[in-house]
Amino acid sequence: MINITSPYLPNKEKYKEYVDEIYKNGWITNNGPMVQKLERRLAVYLGVKNIVLVANGTIALEIAYRALSLKGDVITTPFSFVATTSSLVTNNLNPIFCDIHEETLNIDETKLEGLITPNTSAIVPVHIFGNSCNIEEIKKISKKHSLKVIYDAAHAFGVTYKGKSILNHGDISTLSFHATKLFQTIEGGALVINDDSLVKKTRELINFGIESQESIPSLGTNAKMNEFEAAMGLCVLDDIDFIFKQRKTIYKNYINKLNGSVEFPVQNKQATLNYSYFPLLLENKEQMQALQQALNSEDIFPRRYFCPSLDTLNYIEPKQYSPISRSISARILCLPIYPGLSLDMQNKIIEIVINTININTKE
Length: 363
Ligand SMILES: *Cc1c(COP(=O)(O)O)cnc(C)c1O
Description:
37% of the residues lie in helices and 13% in strands. The chain is α/β, with parallel strands linked by helices and 363 residues long. The strands form 4 sheets. It has a 7-stranded mixed beta sheet with strand order 2-10-9-6-5-3-4, sandwiched between helices. Pyridoxal-5'-phosphate is lined by residues 56-58, 80-81, 83-84, 126, 152, 154-155, 176, 178, 189. Pyridoxal-5'-phosphate binds at residues 56-58, 80-81, 83-84, 126, 152, 154-155, 176, 178, 189.
C-alpha cells in the first residue's frame, strides 16, 4: 500500500543512543536538555531568532493567539487543514474567511481590506503546501490597520523568502512537526516569535502560566514537548539534507513527466520550495474522482488536501461562502511524495495520472 506520505524514521541505533542519554539524565519532560538542544539547533538551521517548541502544531496556533491577546474576528483562509480554523473557534475567535487565489491557493490579499472591520484583531494566512503568501502586501495591510499577523507555516519548514527564512515574517509563525510532516518529532510543533517581548510570556503560556515557583501571572495550558520527541527531532534534523534531496528528486520526476498533462499551483518566485506536497489541480470533481479511483485500485492512496473547504464547517457562524476555495477543494489531489518512494512507483503513478486524464478528457 502506498500512502500520501510515510513518516521519516531515522536510524534506530542513533535514536537508541539518545534514549540511553534520556534514561541517564532521568529528565523526560519539562523543558529538558533534548528540547533545549533541539531549539538551539533549529534556530540556527532555520535562521530564526526565537523558537519555542511545543506539543503539536495546533497548540502552537492557540498559544500564538493567546500570546498576542487576539479578540473578536480573525481573517483567515478557507483552504487549509482544519486546525487553522478550529484553533480559532476553540479560542472564542470568529474566523472570517478571505477567499484564495485560484493560481497560488493562498489567501487573496487583494480581498483582505474589504473584510476588515473594527472587530478585526488579526490575519492568519497559511503558506499552503509550503508556497509563500504575498508577504509584503499582507505586511502593508496589517500595518495600516494595526492588525497582528500569525502565519500558519506548518507546511513551510526550511522555505526561504528573498534569501531569508520565511518564518521571520508576521508577529509569530507556527510550525507542525507531526509524523506526516517534512520534519517530524512524532508529535510536535513550534512558535517562531519575531517580537522579542513575547518570548517570556509564550514560555509561561506553554507551562500552565507559571513564571516561577511562587508566581503564576498568565492563564496558561500544558503545551510542552517531551524529551523522546525532541530526541526524534535531533535525529531527523541530522538527515534533513537527505530528506530534501529525496523529495526534490521525486518532485522533479513528477513535474517533468506530468507537465502539459495537468495543472499545478503557481509558485511564488521570491521563495524557495521544500517539496513537501505534490498537488494536482484537476479540471473538475469527476476527473479528480476518476483519478482517485484509478490510483486506489492499484493500492495507491493520494489525499484530497484540503477538503472540505473550511467555510463549509457546520460550526462556523455566520455562514460564509468562499467559491474559489470550494471549487479547488472539489478538484485537488495530492500525490504521494516522501523519501523512499521508489522510482518504479513514481513512474507507475505518473502513468496512471496520464492515462486517466487522457481517457477522461476524450469522453
Ligand atoms: C498539520 C497542520 C496543522 C496542525 O498540526 P498538528 O501538529 O497536527 O497539530 C496546522 N495547520 C496546518 C496547515 C497543517 O497542515
